[in-house]
Hints:
By secondary structure, the protein is mainly α. The chain is 73% helix and 3% strand.
Amino acid sequence: MRVSTNILGLAALSNLRQVTSQMQLCLTRLSTGLRINTGADDPAGLIAAMHLDTEIVNLQAEMSGAARTGCMLATADAGAGEIGQSLAELRGLLTASANSGAMTDDEIAANQVQIDALVAGIEQTADSTTFAGQKLLEGKLGFDLAPDALGDADTGHLDSLVTSGANDLSSGNIETAAAIVDLAITQVAQARGTLGAEQRDNYESAVETMQTTLANLSDSRAMIMDTDYASELANMNRLAVLGHVALALTALAGAAPRQALSLLYG
């Protein structure tokens, strides 16, 4: 039995320090919710998690941009829908005015006032449908729904239906005016179809794909970085038992030299 160097005591103390260090690591993971709190915990895992963080941030930025695109398309479609509704009302007024024999001059004049108001409303809607300062219905998205653009050069444009225009009610060109409105309705319908296809096939599909990718990336990062509480609690209980054992063994190892000294004194 050695007295000057307590081999058993040193071994027991070393085991106690290891258990204490592991217990501290376990408590840190439980308190922070992270399995990796410093580079020393898992260098390779930390590098992988940092790469995943970069991918997640970039993907979130792309999703934010896609969301803005979706809002822009929805805004444009809402504006185009208002214009389509105004055109339908305008077509009804032309149909009513075509039966001039059953209408007085005052009634026709009243219809012209309504036509002027509807065309002005279409102009205002086309001009005010904006997103981030850009006018969406006047060429930004590949179509122009302003009254001076609706229609065509051969048939005429919508702004020719207002008072003193080439196709106002007093001109007698109601059939031409009706043809212009029908063409404008078709143009608005085509514009809304383009917007709908863009929103469904590009925006919604892209966002769905990005959301799935984001979920997968986040899950991968969580598996690397996040604490598995069931595993850590089980490990903490195991370390607590080992700690008690190591502490008891340290005490017993410290008693051995005293027992040796007691032999010297009989």
